[in-house]
Structures are given as structure tokens and as C-alpha cells.
Specification:
The structure is a homodimer. The first copy, chain A, has 17 helices and 13 strands. Chain A is globular and about 65 Å long. With about 425 residues, the first copy, chain A, is α/β, with parallel strands linked by helices. In chain A, the strands form 4 sheets. Chain A has a 4-stranded mixed beta sheet with strand order 1-4-5-13, sandwiched between helices. A 4-stranded antiparallel beta sheet of chain A has the order 6-9-11-7. A 3-stranded antiparallel beta sheet of chain A has the order 10-8-12. Chain A starts with a helix and ends with a strand.
Chain lengths: ~425, ~425
């Protein structure tokens, strides 16, 4: 395998062969025979030429096998995970993992930290005092086998090829390339040793894929990789035009996720959690009928079983479980600020991207991977799209450590708010299902 | 200037701004702020997206100004150079530079070494004992001012950006990209401080641009850069389906170039030398009428003036001028081998690429830039395309240091030879003129 030949071939629209892809990814990961500049040129050629389903399968498998691939011989039941392409207020994993585990499905979730407007799932969980997301792989596996779920962070052992490739893509403008996005996602998820995977591909202003056709293309590519690698994969395309739920920020979202498992979550958030969880139950063979699965899951919330599973998970991962009973014990901002409706009418637009950036301004997110996150920062929406407001009504409460952040953040927030005179119809949250 | 933004913008089909291009090329050349992998990604994006005339002008100017740009305040007359995209048996510069200088035009020729089937102009000249192609810039300039011509090698002072970019393109499959080829050629040539430039863009089996439409596109791009940078540029597109002239190899080509200036050169080679030289006279304003220029140049050959200028140049650059009077004093192979016609008929194809590779097998060319060249190796064609042959007639004589090279080389040579029964018409050598 000469990297030059692969670049040349791909550049000219050719197809990379399985053994070429394996040698390339292995060589690049080990820093032997494949330089950064050659990989950068190849990635850009892939940006323009794409990869076919065979190539994508081999590419993903090579990334997957660049590190440890988990096996769970001690688990007899189905191992199913969920992945979201990310959005503002997306705390789905926090509620979903214990809920699905409570239904008897095993959820070995390895999650990312990312550079979103708020932290990732790990950052959110870490706002629970003591919660550890850096469990060793063996302990992670044991917890999944015992409790049914665990959520930890990406480790250097899992798909190291992806880490190296992502760092290169990040500085060479080859991040937003569907085959590379899809192989990155799937290589990490498939390394968990899954029987099935549910994808939440978000679309809209606050999503990575702003356009629906892009989101659909990504979903189809992810599913094609699942097919090529023999892991049943289902995608839901969900709306991300406004934030999901009401809380945006790390500890704030933990509160909302906990409340949802106690039956007090916002409707839109609960809807997404239940739908994705039902898909996981279907893949696991626990309940093939969607409606029945939704009822089963709602029952697990109503009975407290899902909340109990969350308690077990928090406790097993070193978290202070008393916060689950007394949410006041979670870190809280001392300062808050009310954003008021500048006019009367109906909320036509509550731009998820703008709300996300507002949260980041308040300290909830990172601009660089080395930035620290403020767990207490963020905002809670009191009104959402479609709601009627009178001038001066409180639309959102901002939270931060530092009062000086409020003025510019409120200004930013309002730049994403459109209030119109006429009432406005609902937009679908669950846009499509691709299997 | 953030390299990321430039990659992103170009990848999306955008236009790079003058100040961005300047900062990029300067940063890359100095190794400050622009990494190899970012440049590799950008080059691949340029491969797919191209550059418009403005961008190309700025890109070339930035490369040009990455190093020394010659000025010739001591020369009142026109400074005109010629560049060829290269072909098999292309020893044009060796005859053309002294010929044009003999007509009163100044020819400051900085030439490449390259990775051709035979050496480049420099390698050919260096087969003249003592000939130095590494004159310091000041001495080069003084020689041009005094004699009218000098031929030296690329120095680190001239367009260092090109050297670094070329090395990167060479390993990232971005060599065969017209805007990058064109800016590379023009940045080095324009650094010579020219008033005009004549381009010999070759097309056919033995050329870099095998297809005529590619050659035309390259010629037009080169001329566009000339326009953007204010240097009048004319291109001739010439055929490279069979080797130019009869000699292929370093010392062998020097012999042919010398004989041409003594009025004994092969017609096709002379035709190209005179045509390109006439274009240079036209750009210099010495003789605007093409036919009159051809006659003037033929007169300079017939009178011995051109040969005399070659003698002055060889002597000024430290070469043993006695070889000009006694060609036997040039290095010569001890071993030779006759390639005979395997059948009777007419030569329909004498594939320039195959002949070039044969010469390289004999030791005349390099595979890697560090390879040594054997000045005596190569071949002389006794028959060319269109010639009638009887079975057993000598078609070529191979020369090498080592007799064991002949068998495989002759085999290779014959693989590029097609003898047909019917006579075959001439193909035009001078295909087009673009100005």
C-alpha cells in the first residue's frame, strides 16, 4: 500500500480496496508510512469523491479495529445503544440509558465531550458531584452486565484511528463530509460490541445538519455502514429548530433529565426520549410494537423503575445519589437574569443555534477543547415556539457565575427570537424514520 | 489569515483574496503558521475547484516573491526566455539560447533538473566536461549582460515557495493540476526578470499533457498568468508523439544540439528551435514578421554566429570548449547495441513514452531525484515515424555502460514500435499557437 496511489485513485474517482484501506488506517494510527499531509490530501479527495457502501464498510471496520472492540460474553441479552448527532438541550442519553436498561436492554454507552454550545453528555453527568465518567473498560463492562447501563467517556483504547483522523479533519476543513462523519460515529459506537444501534439525526438551525436532505443522507449513510458491518441500525430524524426541552446548560439539563424520569419532564423532550427508547426495545426484541413499547416505557417511568435505575447508575459511577432526591444539592448559579418579551404576540422563532450560543456565552460550552465548562451556567426557557406572550412576560431565565455576562447574553438571546402577531402551527418533532 | 478558512472557502468553491494568498504562501515558505497537512488539503481542494485568473495571478506573484526576483538594470535590450513542458529528446534550450542571443536578445535561462526519462537541460549541459550550472546569481546576471545568454540551475534563492510546494504536491497526488502546474512554471520563469516568455507546451504520448485539450488549457492558463503579471507570453503547442530529433540521452543530445547550430540538425528539431526562437525575436521586437525572423535565425546558423555564441557560453560557464570542435571528446558509451526492424513496412508509431523509458532503463534518466544519471546512456534513432523499413534494418542504436541493459531495453523499445504495411502521412509538429 502506497498512500500516494490511494490518494491518486480516490482523486480520480476510483474505489479503494479493502486491504488498502486496512493498511492505510493501521499505518496512519500507528504513525507508520502514512503522513498527516498524505492523509489530509486523501480526506479532501474523499470530501469531493465520496466512498461507496463497500468502501465505507471497510473504512469503518478498519477504524473500529484500530483499538479495542468490546465483547460481552457475560451478557445474554441484547446490547443496544443510541447516538445523537447533537443539538441544543439534547440531554436524551441521561434519561434514556436508565429507562431502556429498566426495560431489560443492555446499554453500554461510550459518549463524547465535543465542542457544542453546551457540554456533551459527559460534562452534564459530571455536574453530579462525584460522578465518574472515566471508568476503566473492565469496570464499565461489569457495570453494564450488572445494572444494564453505564455511560463513560471515550478512552484512548476505543477507535484511536478516529481520534487521530478527527484532529486532522478539524484543521483541514474536512469535518463536514458525510462519509467521514458517518464512519467516525459508527466506528466508535460499533466498538461498544452492539447488537443494534438507534440514531437520532437532528436537523434544523441548531443541528450539525441544518438541511433535512443532508440529515437524511447522513442517516442513510449511517444505516448503510450498519448493514455493511452487520449491526442493525435504525435512524430517527428529529427537529432541532428550537432547543429540545426547556433546560440548556449542564447541571440545568441534569435537573430536567431527572425530572423527566420522575414524570415531570417537558412534553417534547419526553416524546424524543420515549420514541428513541422504543426503537431500542424493538431492536432488542423486547417489544416489537412501537405503541406497546411506548406504553411499556411510560409504565417504567410511572412506576419509578427508570428513576431507580438512574439512581443505581449514579451510585455505581461514584455520584452523590442524594442529589436525585434533592435537586437543590446540584451546583446552582448564584446569579440569574430574566429575559422578557420585548413585544406581545406569538413566538414564531426561537432559534436553537442562537440559544446555544447564548448558553456558551454564559459559560456552558467550550470554544476550544481545553476550555473549562461552568456546570451551573445556562438558561431555562419558560416559553417556546408557538406560545403566546405579552410584552414583559418572562421568556427565559439566564444563569451564570458572573453578572456581567447577562447583558450581552440577553441581547444575543433576543436576536434569535421572532414574535409575530398571528398564532403559528406546530412543527413536527419526529420528522422521519429510516431503517 | 487562518489556513483553515482558506481551505474551507476554496473547498466550497470560493475565491481566495490577494492578501490571504500572500500570507498563505509566505507563511508556508517560512514554515510559520501553515502546516504541510493544511497546505495538502488546500492543494487538493484547488485540484477540484481550480483558481480563477485573479487568484492565479496573485498565487503566482506570491510564489515569485517568496525569493529573489532578478532585475537587470544593466541590460537595455529585451530579456526573453523559453520554457518547455518537457518531452523526450527535447534539447531545444541548448540550441535556442545561443541562437536567440546571437540575434541580440537577452536570454537569462534558469532551468530545472526534473525527473524525466532523460535528464533535464542542466544534466545535458553537465555532460560537457567542466560546464558549471551552479553559477552564483550575480555571475549569471553578468554573463547574460555580457554574452546575451546563460543557463543555470534552479537555486534556493529563486521561488523557494515552489520548491516546497512541489515536494508536497509530489507526494499528495496534486502534481497534475493545471493551475498548480502553471503557477509553478510561471513563478520560476518570472523570477528571471523577463520582458517576455515563449512557452513550448508539448502534447502526445511522451508529453506531460497527453491530450491536446489539456495542453491547450495549460497554455491558456500560462498565458493568463502572464497577462495577470504583466509579462507578454506566447505559447506554441507542439507534438510529442515520437521523440524530438534523433538523440535521446544526455551527451547524445548535446551532440545533436551542437550539430544543429552547425547546420546539420534533424529537420523536426530544427523546425521547433527556429519557430520558438522566432517567437522570442517577435516578443523582443527584433523582428515582428515570423517568416523574416526564421530567415534571420537560419542566417545566424549558416554564418556560424549561433555556434560562436554557444562556444562563448560554454567557455564562460567553465566548459571544455574543445568538445565543440571535436565531438568525440564528449563522454561516449563503450557499448552499443543495434535495434533492428522486426518486419518490413512503414513506421506507424514510435511511441515517445516508450522510447523515453527505454532511455531511462539504459541509465539516461532518474526515477528518484537522488539517482545519478549516466551521461553516455541513451539511444539514437535512425528511423522515425513514416519512414519505410525492411526487416533487419537498423532502427535505433542503444548506448549504455553495461551490456546487460541492452536486451531488456531493446525489448522495451520494440514494444513502442508499430510497423504497418501502408505508408502513413505526416503528423503536424507545430500544432497551434496561442497568444
Amino acid at each position: 500500500m502506497q498512500p500516494y496511489d490511494l490518494i491518486f485513485n480516490k482523486r480520480n474517482g476510483g474505489t479503494l480496496q479493502p486491504e488498502e484501506i486496512e493498511a492505510l488506517i493501521a499505518g496512519y494510527t500507528q504513525g507508520e508510512g502514512v503522513t498527516d499531509y498524505q492523509m489530509a490530501a486523501l480526506l479532501m479527495a474523499i470530501y469531493f469523491r465520496g466512498m461507496n457502501e463497500d468502501e465505507l464498510g471497510h473504512w469503518t471496520r478498519a477504524m473500529l479495529h484500530s483499538g479495542v472492540v468490546l465483547e460481552h460474553p457475560e451478557i445474554a441479552g441484547a446490547k443496544i445503544d443510541k447516538h445523537s448527532t447533537g443539538g441544543v438541550g439534547d440531554k436524551v442519553s441521561l434519561s434514556l440509558a436508565p429507562l431502556v436498561a429498566a426495560a431489560g436492554v443492555y446499554v453500554p454507552m461510550i459518549s463524547g465531550r465535543g465542542l457544542g454550545h453546551t457540554g456533551g453528555t459527559l460534562d452534564k453527568l459530571e455536574s453530579i458531584p462525584g460522578f465518574r465518567t472515566d471508568l476503566p473498560i473492565e469496570r464499565f463492562k461489569a457495570q453494564v452486565a450488572e445494572l444494564g447501563c453505564a455511560i463513560i467517556g471515550q478512552t484512548g483504547e476505543i477507535a484511536p484511528a478516529d481520534k487521530k483522523l478527527y484532529a486532522l479533519r478539524d484543521v483541514t476543513a474536512t469535518v463536514d463530509c458525510i462519509p467521514l462523519i458517518a464512519s467516525s460515529i459508527m466506528s466508535k459506537k460499533l466498538a461498544e460490541g452492539l447488537d443494534g444501534l438507534v440514531l437520532d439525526v437532528k436537523t434544523g438551525r441548531g443541528a450539525f445538519m441544518t438541511e433535512l436532505d443532508q440529515a437524511r443522507q447522513l442517516a442513510e449513510t449511517l444505516i448503510a455502514i450498519g448493514r455493511a458491518t452487520g449491526v442493525e441500525t435504525v435512524a430517527r430524524i428529529t427537529a432541532m429548530d428550537q432547543p429540545l426541552g426547556r433546560a440548556v446548560g449542564n447541571a440545568l439539563e441534569v435537573v430536567e433529565a431527572i425530572e423527566t424520569l420522575r414524570g415531570k419532564g417537558p412534553d417534547d423532550f419526553l416524546d424524543v426520549v420515549l420514541t428513541l427508547s422504543a426503537e431500542m426495545l424493538r431492536l432488542a426484541g423486547v417489544e416489537r410494537d412501537h405503541q406497546a413499547a411506548l406504553e411499556l416505557l411510560q409504565g417504567l417511568i410511572d412506576s419509578g423503575a427508570a428513576f431507580g435505575k438512574l439512581r443505581e447508575m449514579v451510585s455505581a459511577q461514584g455520584g452523590d445519589e442524594s442529589v436525585l432526591d434533592d435537586l437543590e444539592r446540584l451546583p446552582r448559579a448564584k446569579e440569574s437574569f430574566d429575559v422578557l418579551a420585548p413585544e406581545s404576540g406569538f413566538i414564531h422563532v426561537l432559534d436553537a443555534l442562537v440559544v446555544g450560543r447564548t448558553a456558551r456565552m454564559l459559560g456552558a460550552g467550550r470554544k476550544a477543547i481545553t476550555d473549562a465548562i461552568d456546570p451551573v451556567a445556562g438558561l431555562v426557557l419558560e416559553r417556546k415556539r408557538g406560545d403566546g406572550v405579552d410584552k414583559g412576560d418572562r421568556i427565559a431565565i439566564l444563569y451564570a457565575r458572573d453578572h456581567s455576562l447577562f447583558e450581552p447574553a440577553a441581547h444575543r438571546f433576543l436576536s434569535g427570537l421572532v414574535i409575530g402577531e398571528a398564532p403559528i402551527g406546530e412543527q413536527p418533532l419526529l420528522i422521519d424514520r429510516i431503517a
